[in-house]
Design a protein that fits this description.
Layout (H helix, E strand, L loop, with lengths): L6 H9 L19 H12 L21 H9 L21 H11 L21 H9 L19 H18 L1
Helix pairs in contact: 1-6, 2-3, 2-4, 2-6, 4-5
Length: about 180
């Protein structure tokens, strides 16, 4: 982590018990985040309680899966909408995209949709949930690249997720 751009954000989330390291003691900031990992991080950041008894919401997320309680509460809170996932599968181990992260954040914080905030050179590549993604951008939670790209299909690293969640915590602190 020494000298990493997201060191402060990752250490903040670690100190709050939101993110933890791996068995070897590393944080691995450049490792990709999966859908289920981000759902857990998001809910932990929001202080939402974990559901103990779970029912399968998706065919590929049995109640016995470690992430099932988190996914169940995310569905119950409207952060994840099952009908948006083809064939009833969430694909929890699939790498999270920037668009998916922005949508989950906007829903979790109940941000007002704002498509006009999408002023990126690749804004046409944002095919779904344009208003929700724009809301996450307008709120300052997620930014584009120095080349003015949003990269909706770009994968999210642990460092990027930590930076976004740290910004969200700042928003929540200001709002309360």
């Amino acid at each position: 982590m020494r000298g990493h751009w997201a060191k402060a954000d990752m250490e903040r989330l670690r100190s709050l018990g939101i993110i933890s390291g791996f068995a070897d003691g590393t944080i691995r900031p450049n490792e990709n985040v999966t859908r289920e990992q981000f759902v857990k991080l998001l809910l932990e950041s929001l202080g939402m309680p974990q559901v103990r008894k779970t029912e399968a919401v998706f065919r590929d997320v049995p109640a016995s899966r470690w992430s099932a309680p988190y996914i169940q509460i995310a569905v119950a809170k409207g952060i994840i909408e099952p009908e948006e996932y083809a064939g009833g599968n969430f694909e929890p181990a699939k790498v999270l995209t920037r668009a998916e992260m922005a949508v989950m954040l906007a829903r979790a914080l109940e941000l007002e949709p704002n498509e006009s905030a999408l002023k990126f050179a690749d804004a046409d590549a944002i095919r779904q949930h344009r208003g929700l993604i724009g809301a996450a951008v307008k709120s300052g939670l997620i930014n584009g690249t120095p080349q003015n790209l949003f990269q909706p299909d770009g994968v999210v690293t642990r460092a990027q997720a930590a930076a976004v969640l740290s910004r969200m915590l700042d928003m929540e602190t200001i709002a309360s």
